[in-house]
Amino acid sequence: RTDFGKTDWQLFSAAIASSPSTRNLFINDIHAFIANGLNTVPFSDRYFVKPGPTDTGGAAVVGGYDAYKARSTVGGHFAVLAKVLGANALAA
Hints:
92 residues, alpha+beta, two-stranded antiparallel sheet, 3 helices, 4 strands, 35% helix
């Protein structure tokens, strides 16, 4: 099994974190992934966190994306924003 991070779940976790420092750990990790210069595809929701073989027989590069590109699951990236703005934000 390949070791990977899931950006949507990381931001769901950041949204429910009880402390700002925990929330920022998740957000900073994702920022490092999207700013590392290794990815030239639309924002992926899955990236490698350890080197090694992939599920498809390739080689994982830490910080590189894992085949998923611009999927609808990235809607989860708005979890922190939704929590901050609250349930009535769209009514405004």
